[in-house]
What we know:
294 residues, alpha+beta, Deoxyribonuclease I, Chain A, six-stranded mixed sheet, 8 helices, 23% strand, Endo/exonu/phosph_ase_sf
Amino acid sequence: MRVLTVSTVNVNGIRAAAAKGFTEWLKATPADVVCLQEVRAEPDQFPADLRAPEGWHTLVAPAAAKGRAGVALFSRVAPTTTRIGFGTPEFDTAGRYAEMHLPTLTIASLYLPTGEVGTERQAEKERFMAGFHAHLSALSTEAAQTGRAILICGDWNIAHDKADIKNWRANQKSSGFLPEERQWLTSVLTEAGYADVVRNLHPGVDGPYSWWSFRGKAFDNDTGWRIDYQMASANLAALATSAKVERAATYAERWSDHAPVTCAYDWDLAAVPAPRSPISIVGTELLEDSAAAS
């Protein structure tokens, strides 16, 4: 069985990241597919050596709003088809979702809206979540019927559980850790049938965090959030063998405020493997209310 390695990272601007070390990271990575979020550039604005890097097939979904959002995928295997957006007109040109269909795998790069409590940004996030859930369910059904694997990688902008955010007590009323957002993510793992690969391979621990603010000592103190996920269909999750966050050794070596999340799977991109018992889904401890949680 050939090992499939996938990395996902919010680059916080592809041009800025390239100048700080992303290009060198891409050249060195063993990943078969790399999913990027927040590229903030049109394809012709990518640094020259990232527009069509040797050995990679690329798909870029820029945002209609210039200089914002944008997602991309780099794959060593040629896609059979590609897709931008998930069929919701409001978001199909927002640079938040792109999908590659490889021979036995549908893989997508997701940048879910950030949100801000009490504003239109939060309402936008909620509309996105509602429309996207339907697409996730449809893909999950496809996996069950055909044996293809589904893998949704990206910046989901929601910390699912207390273990996924260092300062959870102070953020219970903040976008990204609201009870309704966390419940929605639970429904992705239950109703839609996905598995959180990193959490399943790292149960019962804080983190591993994938985002730290550039401000203050958040990185040095590991005061982070785990919001970058690889959400896999059950057939693929059952074959996950490793998951890690590629945290920079020092603050100075960071090329984004996020770190790559890299997972390996015993999955052949050329042939669907024989069925294996699905991996169990690790549950989440949802906070009933602030008083009960404190």
